[in-house]
Write a structure and sequence with these properties.
It is a single chain. A five-stranded mixed sheet has the order 1-2-3-4-5, with helices on both faces. With about 350 residues, it is of the alpha/beta class. It starts with a helix and ends in a 32-residue tail after the last helix. It contains 15 helices and five strands.
Length: about 350
């Protein structure tokens, strides 16, 4: 956590973020105990805007905001000094606020509004349980009530059900150490929309946690590869379900998608993209790439991936990935000590939940 905490300082100084600060929000003087000393005037103005936003959050919202960082969230499950936690909380909350400020194109009030909505969303949907639903008992250090236990059993069931019909796995990195989330062929015509949505969000959280761990907090985005060549339209989620997923990602995960590469998109998928395009932010649309044919795909793999061998998701064991690979590690290239699979929760049976 300490290394990731230190790495978090670096994200406040790149050129794209400096452009955000060209939007003025009035004069403000930083407090003497500012936790992120700016290294330039533009960085100073960014810190001013971010402090305005986080100071408008309640204590509970500030904590939820900081918990967008998996490393921070995990660290809160262990004892630490109040001073350490206060500083880390502020830094991680400011980092999340910065993403919303960029997403709102420098509009501080809009960024604050959407940030507060995301805090409510995280609380209401219990993203903490989604993150920890496959954790092992030895990794857990807090008890959950029976309602939480039942919810974990439901989450496990849905994710295992959905990934039995589609490989969805975090594997490999791009050349900037951003994790790559692979979405493979879907083979089942019958599907649960709820299971599909929960699985996608679970994997997004894993990909972002893996990016954070691999880059020590210096990167915060993910790359997505969608292998669409073998997906039939009857096996695909409905347009309404995809629109709901896109809406969740745009509202609650701003600035998290680095690029989305669709491999061998069939006609029906191109049509769906045309229908969804008006609902996408212009900057999000620019992140989409379509690659048809082996030659074009090989070129993209070489341009993006640190190791092109990670482009293949053949022979992926999804149960192994879910139950034995730590939450913030990819399927390969980050070999972790073998751990016992967690007992799958059953509704009505007490089980301690683990936070990775």
């Amino acid at each position: 956590m300490e290394q990731i905490f230190q790495g978090s300082f670096e994200v406040f100084d790149n050129e794209e973020q400096k452009q955000t600060c060209k939007v003025s929000s009035g004069i403000c003087v930083l407090n003497n105990n500012d936790v992120s000393p700016p290294r330039s005037f533009m960085s100073y103005m960014l810190c001013v805007l971010l402090q305005d936003i986080v100071n408008a959050l309640s204590e509970e919202e500030l904590e939820l905001c900081a918990q967008s960082s998996f490393a921070y969230w995990r660290s809160t499950l262990t004892k630490s000094s109040s001073g350490e936690k206060s500083t880390a909380t502020m830094i991680m909350a400011m980092r999340e606020a910065r993403r919303y400020l960029m997403g709102a194109r420098g509009d501080k009030d809009m960024a604050l509004e959407y940030l507060k909505k995301t805090c409510r969303y995280r609380q209401e949907t219990r993203l903490d349980l989604l993150r920890s639903c496959f954790s092992t008992q030895e990794e857990n250090n807090h008890e959950q009530n029976q309602e939480d236990v039942d919810m974990v059993a439901h989450l496990q069931s849905m994710i295992l059900q959905d990934t039995a019909h589609q490989t969805v796995v975090v594997q490999g990195f791009d050349k900037s150490h951003c994790a790559v989330l692979h979405l493979g062929n879907r083979t089942c015509a019958k599907m649960s929309n709820e299971a599909f949505l929960k699985t996608q969000l679970y994997m997004v959280e894993r990909a972002l946690a893996t990016t954070e761990a691999r880059s020590l907090g210096r990167q915060e985005q993910m790359v997505v590869f969608l292998d669409a060549g073998c997906i039939q339209s009857k096996c695909a989620p409905s347009l309404q379900t995809v629109k709901e997923l896109v809406s969740i990602l745009q509202k609650h995960y701003p600035q998290r998608l680095k690029s989305l590469v669709v491999l061998d998109p069939p006609f029906w998928l191109r049509t769906m993209y045309t229908m969804l395009s008006p609902f996408l932010d212009s900057r999000t649309r620019q992140k989409f790439q379509l690659a048809s044919g082996e030659k074009e795909q090989k070129k993209i793999f070489q341009e993006i991936l640190m190791d092109t061998s990670t482009a293949s998701i053949d022979d992926i064991d999804m149960k192994h990935f879910l139950t034995k690979v730590p939450f913030s590690q990819g399927y390969i290239h980050e070999v972790a000590p073998e751990r016992e699979s967690p007992p799958l929760a059953t509704a009505g049976q007490p089980q301690a939940l683990l936070a990775q």
